[in-house]
């Protein structure tokens, strides 16, 4: 029986964006994402949704629209 001591392997977590194993360690500044790209994608999606939700239903108040000359 060969004992396999936990080497200094970095912990890995599934990237929230692409579900791929991302290195969860200081060496990965984009953690828990696998890359800066996935990080930006997730942030973008989040912001987009946030904007949608935050959109105030002030349509009645905005009834006086100017005629688009
Ligand atoms: Zn990813």
From TrEMBL:
Q: Which GO terms describe its biological process?
A: regulation of DNA-templated transcription
UniProt keyword terms in alphabetical order: Metal-binding, Zinc
Where Zn(2+) binds, per the record, is at 15, 18, 34, 38
In the UniProt record, does the keyword Kinase occur? no
- What cofactor does this chain's UniProt record say it requires? Zn(2+)
Q: Which GO terms describe its molecular function?
A: DNA topoisomerase type II (double strand cut, ATP-hydrolyzing) inhibitor activity; zinc ion binding
Endpoints of the signal sequence: none
Instruction: Outline what the protein does.
Output: Inhibits all the catalytic activities of DNA gyrase by preventing its interaction with DNA. Acts by binding directly to the C-terminal domain of GyrB, which probably disrupts DNA binding by the gyrase.
Q: Which HAMAP family match?
A: DNA_gyrase_inhibitor_YacG (MF_00649)
Name of the molecule in the record: DNA gyrase inhibitor YacG
**What species does this protein belong to?**
Pseudaquabacterium pictum
Taxonomic lineage from the root: Bacteria, Pseudomonadati, Pseudomonadota, Betaproteobacteria, Burkholderiales
What gene name is given for the protein in this entry? yacG
């Amino acid at each position: 029986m060969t004992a396999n001591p936990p080497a200094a392997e970095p912990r890995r977590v599934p990237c929230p964006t692409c579900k791929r194993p991302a290195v969860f360690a200081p060496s990965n500044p984009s953690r828990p994402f696998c890359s800066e790209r996935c990080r930006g994608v997730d942030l973008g999606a989040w912001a987009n949704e946030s904007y949608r939700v935050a959109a105030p239903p002030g349509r009645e108040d905005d009834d006086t629209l100017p005629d688009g000359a």
